[in-house]
TrEMBL record:
InterPro entries, A to Z: ANF_lig-bd_rcpt, GPCR_3, GPCR_3_9-Cys_dom, GPCR_3_9-Cys_sf, GPCR_3_C, GPCR_3_CS, GPCR_3_mGluR4, GPCR_3_mtglu_rcpt
Name under which the protein is recorded: G-protein coupled receptors family 3 profile domain-containing protein
Membrane topology designation: Multi-pass membrane protein
One Pfam family matching this protein: ANF_receptor
Organism, as annotated: Zoarces viviparus
Keyword Zinc among UniProt keywords: no
């Protein structure tokens, strides 16, 4: 009969079913033994302490086994959920009639989040600080919204599903980016509602399989169960809520299937420290961890029970039956053991003539009786103060009043342990933890390895496994990822994941995410943090610098030698015939073309970058402005000679200098505009050598001269060069004894070839990892080669004559402009001879003819000294 419906309190000494803790259904039920939910919590703590997060469960069909497993599964889920149901920021909340819920939307794949129980005391300052760490609108750090606390508020605009992200940010503020957003107004508060969805974190336990043993198992059923457990080989730990017979048969099946040492058994109190489940299968049970409610033998009961006999215990109607069973004998003609070999004498003694061991629940039976006695005693003392026996007020005891006294009792029980009840009538959980071990002498025994009293106390050094050492075996779905790898969780199995390496320039930001390093940084070797990318520049000892410097040094020496020679022999006929003023301008440009190599290679700074901008195109501009002026003068003179006998204007040295420096001023004006629009500075280019392997990435320190700026700076000089080349082509028929038209032509043709080769080499290395080296070397070598061509073709022959053949450095005959006109006219008329004879031969003949036809007494003439060509 169920006395609870009659509101009669009950105290149980053995009922451990978790559902009896439901105070709404069993409100008059109490017990002096802990419920199986405590046992399940203790077993979960054991599994967690062992580092096992992937386990299977096995239950015997029935209330004990199925309820125990259900409690274990439920607690394993709850352990991975935050116990915090609400987070409120009451600032102030008195006027609220409507509460706007706040939810966070995490990435769907990030189901495992390290959400721990919130232990901090809620308050406006604490939660404002933590909420302000969330970044709005950023799905990587979880978006969040506030809702206005009014009835008219459209809550739907502020609800984002996904509670774990909220608690993740609240607990791990350091991993969330800061923001300036704060509470907007006084009527705002933070209200987090925890849903029914639980999300596992590292330390939670996943259930691989939940199997059940039927009450009447079919043949081969246990072999099938063992093989099914083997389908998830990584889930080696098996949580067992099974009766003794099922435990024994499961162990026997594992032994038959050669699985000794594979499974890690974790048994409930039905296994405890019993010998019967492990008889003849000690090896397969070795290492099993079992649990048993903490109990102690009551010595007073042993003395009392051992003193009982047939004569002094007649009030117990079952004692005679126990006597026959215990001593294997028969009492008289009506004994309960027919066919017994001997007759009981009545003089047998318990513990002397038979094996005796105190039943484990004796302590709890005594505690239950004493709990009821203490409750009645306290009730009598309260209601019947000083009244002997049952007073009228206790004649009709109210069940609720008695229950209140039962729940309030507190005393030391028969074994010396405290006896108390919580609000659900449950006794505190106290368990001993055993491990079944086989010592060196092959003797098997249960050894106490710890205890559980609301929290686990485990002596890890006493553990022993089938391997013979104390190293913990594994029961995990996936091994921990290596440093620099993130966990990609298997959907639906949060304890299982694939390890993915953070590739490229990503680092491991958390267990489950990779994060891109800032552009100027790269991952360290372990990919756990970002470090600055090394900054490089073109070094003087680099092969890319040695060749340009070598060419430049030779050119500077040669140019200096030419200038010194011209200054030393400034008044000699060859130097004067070369046009001294224009020669010095040209030599200055050649010298600058060589010098620009050094600032191009030097370590960039503001001064160096300024020099690079100024002299990058200036040397070429000096050179080709002078050459253009000379070729233009030659062209104008001979074109004028075809139609008139008067000399063209602006062919005097002063005019030539004005024209030349006018052309150079355009380049200088462009440089000044460049300086004003974009002052020179340095920068680090991280994209030039951003290789696929971050370990090889480098930042290049360089001047802020883009390819477009370079084209603009050199473009004007190249325009002068092209124009000069055109004039060189037009003056190719001028007799060689008149001027330098032919050497200038050869110089310009060669220079054009150099710069045509420069373009694909310079701009074709845009994607090269050595772009900076190649472009710098190409540009400086091209400038030096252009200068070398001009120096070699225009000035080395003259220096050769001046130094080695001074006898040829004598004045030439003076030629009149009329002679030049005659030559120009005859050249035009006889141009068809160019196809029949070599060009030089025709010109020589023309020169000779002109010399013969010039009257010696002519007073107006054009001399080499006055109008050098």
């Amino acid at each position: 009969m169920n006395l609870l419906y009659l509101q009669i309190p009950q105290i149980s000494y053995a009922s451990t079913a978790p559902e009896l803790s439901d105070n709404t259904r069993y409100d008059f039920f109490s017990r002096v033994v802990p419920p199986d939910s405590y046992q399940a919590q203790a077993m979960l703590d054991i599994v967690t302490a062992m580092g096992w997060n992937y386990v299977s469960t096995l239950a015997s069909e029935g209330n004990y086994g199925e309820s125990g497993v259900e409690a274990f599964v439920q607690i394993s889920r709850d352990s991975a959920c935050s116990k915090l149901l609400f987070i409120r920021d009451d600032a102030p909340a008195a006027e609220f009639s409507h509460r706007s819920p706040l939810f966070i939307a995490p990435d769907e794949d990030q189901l495992i989040l390290p959400v721990h129980n919130q232990s901090a005391t809620p308050g406006p300052n604490l939660w404002r600080k933590r909420v302000s760490a969330m970044n709005p609108g950023d799905t990587d750090t979880f978006s969040w919204f506030y809702g206005q606390g009014t009835e008219n508020d459209d809550t739907g605009n502020h609800v984002h599903v996904g509670t774990p992200g909220t608690l993740f940010c609240l607990h791990y503020v350091g991993q969330c980016r800061p923001t300036g957003v704060t509470l907007m107004g006084e009527n705002h508060f933070l209200y987090v509602l925890w849903t029914e969805n639980c999300f596992h974190f590292e330390g939670g336990v996943c259930i691989a399989q939940s199997l059940k043993v039927l009450r009447e198992p079919r043949p081969g059923e246990f072999d099938k169960i063992v093989l099914r457990l083997l389908e998830t080989p990584n889930a080696r730990a098996v949580i067992m809520f099974a009766n003794e017979d099922d435990i024994r048969r499961i162990l026997d099946a594992a032994k038959r299937n050669n699985l000794t040492g594979h499974f890690l058994w974790v048994g409930s109190d039905s296994w405890g420290s019993k010998i019967s489940p492990v008889v003849q299968q000690e090896r397969v049970a070795e290492g099993a961890v079992t649990i048993l409610p903490k109990r102690a033998s009551v010595d007073a009961f042993d003395r009392y029970f051992k003193s009982r006999s047939l004569s002094n215990n007649r009030r117990n109607v079952w004692f005679a039956e126990f006597w026959e069973e215990n001593f294997v004998c028969k009492l008289g003609m009506h004994g309960k053991r027919p066919g017994s070999p001997k007759k009981c004498t009545g003089l047998e003694k318990v513990g002397r003539d038979s094996t005796y061991e105190q039943e484990g629940k004796v302590q709890f039976v005594m505690d239950a009786v004493y709990a009821m006695a203490h409750a009645l005693h306290h009730m009598h003392r309260e209601l019947c103060a000083g009244y002997p026996g049952l007073c009228p007020r206790m004649a009709n005891i109210d069940g609720k009043e008695l229950l209140a006294h039962i729940r309030a009792v507190g005393f030391n029980g028969s074994a010396g342990t405290p006896v108390t009840f919580n609000e659900n009538g449950d006794a505190p959980g106290r368990y001993d933890i055993f491990q079944y071990q086989i010592n060196n002498r092959s003797t098997a025994e249960y050894k106490v390895i710890g205890h559980w009293t609301n929290q686990l106390h485990l002596d890890m050094e006493t553990l022993q496994w089938t391997t013979g050492d104390s190293s913990l075996p594994a029961s995990v779905c996936s091994l921990p990822c290596r440093t620099g790898e993130r966990k990609k969780v298997v959907k639906g199995v949060p304890c299982c994941w694939h390890c993915e390496r953070c590739e490229g320039y990503h680092i491991q930001a958390s267990e489950f995410t990779c994060e891109l390093c800032p552009y100027e940084k790269r991952p360290d070797q372990n990919r756990t943090s970002c470090q600055a990318i090394p900054i490089i520049k073109l070094e003087w000892h680099s092969p890319w610098a040695l060749l340009p410097v070598f060419i430049s040094v030779l050119g500077i020496i040669a140019t200096t030698f030419v200038i010194v020679t011209f200054v030393r022999y400034n008044d000699t006929p060859i130097v004067r015939a070369s046009g001294r003023e224009m020669s010095y301008v040209l030599l200055t440009g050649i010298f600058l073309c060589y010098v620009i190599t050094f600032p191009m290679i030097a370590a960039p700074d503001v001064v160096v970058c300024s020099f690079c901008r100024i002299f990058l195109g200036l040397g070429m501009c000096f050179s080709y402005a002078a050459l253009l002026t000379k070729t233009n003068r030659i062209h104008r003179i001979f074109e004028q000679g075809k139609t008139a006998v008067t000399a063209p204007r602006f062919i005097a040295p002063a005019s030539q200098l004005v024209i030349t420096f006018s052309l150079i001023s355009v380049q200088l004006l462009g440089v000044l505009v460049w300086f004003a629009a974009d002052p020179p500075h340095t920068f680090v280019d991280y994209g030039e050598q951003r290789t696929q392997d971050p370990g090889n990435a480098r930042g290049v320190l360089k001047c802020d001269i883009s390819d477009l700026s370079l084209i603009c700076s050199l473009g004007y000089s190249i325009l002068l060069m092209v124009t000069c080349t055109v004039y060189a082509i037009k003056t190719r028929g001028v007799p060689e004894t008149f001027n330098e038209a032919k050497p200038i032509g050869f110089t310009m043709y060669t220079t054009c070839i150099i710069w045509l080769a420069f373009i694909p080499i310079f701009f074709g290395t845009a994607q090269s990892a050595e772009r900076m080296y190649i472009q710098t070397a190409t540009l400086t070598v091209s400038l030096s080669l252009s200068a070398s061509v001009s120096l070699g073709m225009l000035y080395m022959p003259k220096v050769y004559i001046i130094i080695l053949h001074p006898e040829q450095n004598v004045p030439k005959r003076k030629r009149s402009f009329k002679a030049i006109v005659t030559v120009a006219t005859m050249t035009s008329k006889l141009s068809h001879l160019a196809a029949e004879r070599p060009n030089g031969e025709v010109k020589t003949e023309l020169c000779e003819g002109v010399e013969a036809s010039v009257p010696p007494t002519k007073t107006t003439y054009v001399s080499y000294t006055n109008h050098a060509m």
